[in-house]
Amino acid sequence: MSDAPDPADEPQVFYSSKPRLIHMAFNIAIAPVLLYLLGAWPWPPVLPHYIVFTITTLMALRFTRKRWSAPRLVVDASGLSCGKFYAADDIYRVEPSMRAVSLKLLEDGKVKTRVISLGWASREDCQTIQHLLAQRFQRELPDDSQS
What we know:
Layout: E1 12-15, H1 18-29, H2 33-37, H3 47-68, E2 71-76, E3 79-81, E4 85-87, E5 91-97, E6 100-107, E7 110-117, H4 123-136
Helix pairs in contact: 1-3
């Protein structure tokens, strides 16, 4: 017998796509520019405008820092964690869809569908996550539960 760990027991951790985070932070930081383009703010900027620019830039930096190193999805032997924890024993089937996965899981004695969006992941991570989950969770649905 080998004492090597089962690869399915090792946690798989996925993070937000760095280019997507930078793009979102940039959009947050330049949002006040729209007020100039719409004509709501006169040109040239004055002190209140600079304060708004500073606040939105700080918000963008906080948004990025908060999501830069925090895992968005963790898959391990106990289940799946993506904002909410889904126990492995409750997940029956995972079906990939466009930039998302549909979980068929048992909640309150009934089989329910939960969709997890993967819009935060890179294209490669999205495909990897869909393949990994579809491979790992493929059990038969119970007959006595209602959808």
